[in-house]
Design a protein that fits this description.
219 residues, Rossmann fold, 47% helix, globular
């Protein structure tokens, strides 16, 4: 029995050790490449909202710059890519990474795919969802250095009915819930969710995030 227990413990340790090793390896390639500058290319939009890609793109430079990397101005990048015949984001994402990086002298390229950007109404509540897939590829070898997938969900809280309110209190609460849900449906909370997604994607280090860049004030 002791031999069986010992064998099981060894197997468990190997499994968890392997998982930890794979988790650490998530940033190994990025650490080895040590990019100083990151080119953010236009996002691909797979959501139902036609404006999602542009809004998402606008949230990306600040967290990467704060993480310690030089980031090329996204408006300039978009203009240069258009002049080079890459006006469509799908074409940009299928072009060789080295070609994109060479246009700007970038060390690495960040690709972003917006998978969800929607607000769904159901039974007096609206749930807003932003789901994003991130990739960083080497500007010389096209190799995948890091990737992450993040999903953020927001459902506004209208509170709970007051105690002793009776039927009138319950009706008032339902009215408030309906109003809160309608407001969220009319003006979904996309941008805060997008910024939260970026923070979770980039900052959770040494978890799934990226290591601080060469210009980070604190590492």
């Amino acid at each position: 029995m002791k031999k069986i227990i010992c064998s099981l413990l060894i197997v468990i340790l190997l499994v968890f050790g392997g998982c930890a090793h794979r988790e650490l390896n998530k940033q190994d390639k990025l650490l080895s490449a040590a990019p100083r500058s990151i080119l953010i290319v236009p996002a691909v939009n797979n959501s139902i909202d036609v404006t999602a890609a542009d809004y998402m793109l606008s949230t990306l430079p600040l967290p990467l710059a704060e993480r310690g990397y030089y980031v090329f101005p996204i408006n300039v990048v978009k203009r240069v890519l258009e002049d080079d015949g890459l006006a469509d984001s799908s074409l940009v994402h299928t072009a060789p990474t080295s070609k994109l990086a060479n246009l700007f002298g970038a060390d690495a390229v960040l690709y972003v795919v917006v998978e969800r950007w929607d607000a769904r109404y159901a039974v007096l509540q609206t749930t807003t969802t932003v789901a994003v897939y991130y990739q960083i590829r080497d500007g010389k070898t096209d190799e995948l250095l890091w990737d992450n997938r993040v999903k953020m969900v927001y459902t506004p809280d209208s509170g709970t009915p007051g105690a002793g309110g009776g039927a009138a209190g319950l009706i008032a609460h339902l009215v408030v819930k309906a109003v809160v849900a309608a407001v969220e449906k009319a003006a979904p909370n996309y941008m805060p969710l997008a910024r939260q997604a970026n923070s979770r994607a980039f900052l959770y280090y040494p978890g799934d995030g990226i290591p601080p860049g060469p210009y980070a004030t604190a590492k």
